């Protein structure tokens, strides 16, 4: 009887520890996206304020669709916005921090910067975003209690 109780408590404890580890790592998760992925199609875009993404190398500037300058509408390509803002190089790619504004705004100004021409949009829009660069290098994969965890998600195709 005592052994069953121990196994039950041990299982519960392990589940609690893994649950805590999962929650603490969730802020470090990076979504691998394509060059043309729009902010509106990012995972959990309607529920999160900050989303970290990894943009691939060799984004074709001629295929970039961006609306706004510094603040971009959610129908803009995230990686292209990062290139437009001067945070990413089209040839190298990299990691972006995407800050979502769930209230949106109005009067998005168009401009040309870093080989990307953004469009203007003078109406109000319900969701927009800004981008910033990764402030510190990524850490190595974490190991906790003998369980290897990574800070990356598999690539997902977003349009």
Automatic annotation (TrEMBL):
<dbReference type="InterPro" id="IPR004043">
    <property type="entry name" value="LCCL"/>
</dbReference>
<keyword id="KW-0732">Signal</keyword>
<protein>
    <recommendedName>
        <fullName>LCCL domain-containing protein</fullName>
    </recommendedName>
</protein>
<dbReference type="InterPro" id="IPR036609">
    <property type="entry name" value="LCCL_sf"/>
</dbReference>
<feature type="signal peptide">
    <location>
        <begin position="1"/>
        <end position="26"/>
    </location>
</feature>
<feature type="domain" description="LCCL">
    <location>
        <begin position="29"/>
        <end position="119"/>
    </location>
</feature>
<dbReference type="Pfam" id="PF03815">
    <property type="entry name" value="LCCL"/>
</dbReference>
<dbReference type="InterPro" id="IPR051957">
    <property type="entry name" value="CRISP-LCCL_domain"/>
</dbReference>
């Amino acid at each position: 009887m005592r052994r069953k109780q121990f196994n039950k408590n041990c299982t519960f404890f392990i589940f609690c520890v893994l649950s805590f580890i999962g929650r603490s790592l969730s802020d470090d998760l990076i979504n691998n996206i394509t060059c043309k992925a729009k902010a509106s199609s990012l995972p959990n875009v309607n529920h999160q304020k900050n989303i970290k993404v990894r943009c691939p190398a060799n984004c074709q500037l001629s295929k970039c669709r961006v609306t706004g300058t510094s603040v971009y509408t959610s129908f803009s390509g995230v990686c292209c916005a990062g290139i437009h803002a001067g945070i990413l190089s089209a040839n190298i790619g990299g990691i972006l921090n995407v800050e979502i504004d769930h209230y949106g705004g109005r009067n998005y100004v168009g401009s040309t910067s870093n080989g990307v021409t953004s469009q203007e949009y003078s109406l109000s829009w319900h969701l927009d975003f800004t981008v910033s660069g990764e402030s510190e290098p990524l850490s190595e994969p974490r190991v906790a209690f003998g369980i290897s965890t990574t800070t990356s998600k598999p690539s997902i195709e977003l349009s």
